[in-house]
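tool_call: predict_structure(chain=1)
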Amino acid sequence: MKGYIQIYTGQGKGKTTAAIGLAIRAAGAGKRVLFLQFMKSNVYHEQPILTSIPNITLQTVGKPFFIIPEGLKDKKELETWGNDVVTFPKGHPPVSYIHLIEKGLNLAKSAISSDNYDVIILDEFCVALLFNLITREQAEELLSLKSPSLELVFTGRGAPDWLIDKADLVTNMQEIKHYYTKGVLARDGIER
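tool_result:
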């Protein structure tokens, strides 16, 4: 069976959620799934369930806080996040975070090069690209390793046009309305 390249991107909620649904569906069909989460640590409530499902392997490369370049969020919004977010000067992410992303890239390369998986989901990969934690060249190297039968899925805000051009399926999650604009933070079991 032919495998395709999929992207779930956009400003709206539901990118990871859609990828989780795809992972469960694929596992239910007996497909071997790697769900590799960039920029996330083991603090999300889908993780215990995903690791309990046969045929799904979950790996995370992140810290228990999110990083964003300075200037991306205003001061008021950053205050609502508290210690859950760390800002860095544009072009100068924390070195420890770069090492985590490199670890994730190596895991992705190894998995894509192997015949161990039918579906590989690289969750928040597009955000890592957007923040220049992953270069276009590194991403293109991953694409060059893809076998014709592998289903390769990227999630995250800010998917670049060049990656969208290479994809076979692109879903843009559009935010129409969201309660976070009223100060509602990520809720357990709903957003994390």
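agent: The two ends are 33 Å apart (CA to CA). Proceeding to next step.
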